[in-house]
Amino acid sequence: MRGLGSLLVALMLGMFVSCTHKELCYDHSHVVNIDVRFDWCNAPDASPASMSLYLFAEDGTRPQRYELKGHEGGTIRVSQGIYHAVCLNSDTRNIECRDKEHMSTFLVASRDETVTGSSMGMGMLLSTAMQNMGRGGERYARQPEMLWMGRSFDFVVGEDGGVVTLTPEQAVVRITISIYNVENMDNVTAVAGTLSGLSEGILASTGEPNGVGVTHPFEVTVSEDKNSLHASLLSFGDCLSGDQKHYIDLYTVLGDGSQWHYSFDVTEDVHEAVDELHIYIELDGLPVPEPSPGGGGGGFRPTIDEWTNVEQEIKM
């Protein structure tokens, strides 16, 4: 009996020892570290304050977003697998990301415009103009800020982690507008403009426009000699939707309170731009009238139904 008892004790001790040394693994995701690097060879002057990285697993699991300070990259924790990736700078306020469940539907787009006042009364002026004019039912959207995007496809995260390198490049188009030979600018108390037919946003997977047009309001600068008007705005470029037209609508209010709306068809300028990332539009002639004698004077009070419309066709 003593021998049998000793044998039982030995077997129990052996079982206890084997249990304490066996490694149990309930986590089969195998999370590892990977280094994220951004190669700025296509945008050497870029220095955004932060970057967002979106990972889309090939197995269809929920996409993951990582936020990285600065623009050089960093280390993140990722499950092993095969991924597609999109990166973009996140130091923006006028841009939103939509339909992020799949890389093929991921859209980077301009937010709705919210009109605010300015020293030239732009907010009040555009608020009235936006109620009155509108082009083909397009929504008014904020201009995007400078945006850089990069993407990578089918990169493998293995047991040892690894490195993923993305090459961001400029994803927005700058549009520079100049109008020369402007008349009677001394009599203008407020001026602002809009440009229609621009893209709502771009698809993250390709960088191509999504085919939905928006109108961007923009501020106007008067030259020192008051003989020309200038503006610069950022956009996602031409929406590339069929026979989409592009119009500059310029709104001015004179010292006598009269309101003038000038329209320029600039479709050709946009469609035939030589530089895909910088479109130059130059126009000639803006016949601002002199205020009518005794016309009420000095008021900036635009109303919806009192715009005098002028179609302009003169170009440089």
Task: Describe the protein.
The protein is mainly beta and 316 residues long. The chain has one domain. It is built from three helices and 21 strands. A six-stranded mixed beta sheet has the order 8-15-13-18-19-21, covered by helices on one side. The chain has a five-stranded antiparallel beta sheet with strand order 3-2-5-9-11, with no helix packed on it. Strand 2 and strand 3 (64-69) form a beta hairpin.
Report the uncertain regions: 15-26, 116-121, 297-302
Q: Count the helices. How many?
A: 3
Taken together, the total number of domains comes to: 1
Structural class: mainly beta
What does the largest sheet look like?
Answer: 6 strands, mixed
- Radius of gyration equals 30 Å
Query: Helicity range of the residues?
Result: 10-25%
How do the strands of the widest beta sheet line up side by side?
8-15-13-18-19-21
Apparent shape: elongated
The number of E-state strands comes to 21
Q: Please give the alpha-carbon distance between the first and last residues.
A: 113 Å
What is the percentage of strand-forming residues?
A: 35-45%
Overall average pLDDT: 84
